[in-house]
Specification:
Blueprint lengths: L8 E4 L6 E4 L9 E3 L1 H6 L6 E6 L11 H14 L4 E6 L4 H12 L3 E6 L9 H8 L3 E4 L9 H15 L4 E3 L7 H20 L6 E6 L3 H13 L4 E6 L6 H16 L11 E3 L12 H14 L8 H13 L8 E6 L3 H4 L3 H5 L2
Parallel strand pairs: 4-12, 5-6, 5-8, 6-7, 9-10, 9-12, 10-11
Antiparallel strand pairs: 1-2, 3-4
Bound molecules: pyridoxal-5'-phosphate.
């Protein structure tokens, strides 16, 4: 399959073992590093810490969605779509990465962002505009189940009437096609660890719309790798577990994988004392400063700072043994930091 750019690649990824359309977007493999200084800072009983740098996937400040969009926008191009539509919060990293992908592949991009246009345009929203996306505001900060999907379909119908060929990308690109990005990612890190002659016991990351988590879960099963995956939540505390179960089943069915993932494989945690989506507390502020000032690595207050804060909290409470090795998966979000300067500084 060839895109108009001649860049589409149909290929057989190893554990995926499926012919699926994928466009090259991410700088892969992303680096895998030791966090020696942070470990030292966290004290004697801190486990060995490594970090997977998916903040360095490259496209328009990077992040985890770039891996998923390689497959989802790859699929959109095979349908002949010329416009992609997706949704998220005003500071959605997923929307920014979708807008960048669309720009690179000559597609129009419509973003349905929750809420109203803010007075100050910054962070991801600034980049969405610079990347040429058309922005529609949903008018409400929260919507009942199904309402956003209905709005996406209305936008698609309007675009069809204008003669466009729209393709809807779900929230977070978390469907079986997007999940392929993290099935691959887990295989990537598996080989990196082998090359380093090292092993890890756990992977900790932020689980939001679930695709990253499910991809890792399925990828590890396909590899026969018994690594414990712990997703830290920042939203959907009641609904995410069922969403992950459903996406796991849908993905296994979609690719016809011969694996068995049970609810015992799914570990979802909330950092103690944390608040709902986007609320910044000392947990995130402390994590952001500690990793910045010990390693020169930037995490954001909504996603990766919440996950790192949760990890640090668990280390401090003696949840993990100092003999363990833990991989913190940095999923990006750097641009969102700039929209939260006051909260992060505690002003
Ligand atoms: C920076 C960052 N990390 C993690 C996630 C969560 O990934 P997923 O939606 O695949 O669970 C997101 C989702 O928007 C994100 O922007």
């Amino acid at each position: 399959m060839q895109s108009t750019h001649g860049e589409m690649i149909n290929h057989r990824d190893s554990v995926l073992a499926h012919d699926i359309s994928r466009i090259p977007l991410a700088f892969l493999p992303t680096p895998l590093e030791e966090l020696h200084n942070l470990r030292q800072l966290l004290g004697d009983n801190c486990p060995r810490l490594l970090i997977k740098r998916d903040d360095q996937t490259g496209l328009a400040t990077g992040g985890n969605k770039v891996r998923k969009l390689e497959y989802v926008v790859g699929d959109a191009l095979t349908t002949g779509a010329n416009t992609v539509i997706t949704t998220g919060s005003a500071q959605s990293n997923h929307c920014r990465q979708t807008a960048a992908t669309a720009a690179k592949y000559g597609l129009d991009c419509v973003l349905l962002l929750r809420g109203h246009e803010p007075e100050h345009i910054n962070g991801n929203l600034l980049l969405d505009k610079l990347l040429g996306a058309t922005i529609r505001w949903s008018g409400k900060p929260q919507h009942p189940t199904g309402e956003i999907d209905a709005m996406l379909h209305t936008i698609a119908d309007e675009l069809r009437e204008e003669g466009k060929k729209p393709y809807i990308i779900p929230l977070g690109a978390s469907n079986p096609i997007g999940t392929a990005g993290y099935i691959n990612a887990i295989e990537e890190v598996y080989h990196q660890l082998q090359a380093m002659n090292t092993s890890i016991d756990r992977i900790i990351f932020l689980s939001g719309s679930g695709g990253t988590h499910v991809g890792m879960l399925i990828g590890a099963k396909l590899l026969g790798w018994d690594v414990r995956l712990e997703g830290i939540m920042n939203s959907g505390f009641e609904t995410l577990p069922a969403k992950i179960v459903k996406l796991t089943h849908d993905t296994i069915e979609h690719y016809n994988f011969d694996i068995n993932v049970t609810e015992n494989d799914i570990h979802l945690l909330a950092a103690a004392g944390t608040h709902s989506y986007g609320v910044v507390t000392d947990l995130e502020r402390n994590a952001i400063r500690k990793i910045a000032q010990s390693e020169g690595i930037i995490v954001d207050p909504v996603y990766t700072g919440r996950a790192l804060g949760g990890l640090m909290q668990r280390i401090q409470s003696g949840e993990y043994s100092s003999d363990e090795a833990i991989l913190f998966w940095h999923t990006g979000g750097t641009s969102g930091l700039f929209a939260k300067a006051d909260d992060v500084l505690g002003n």
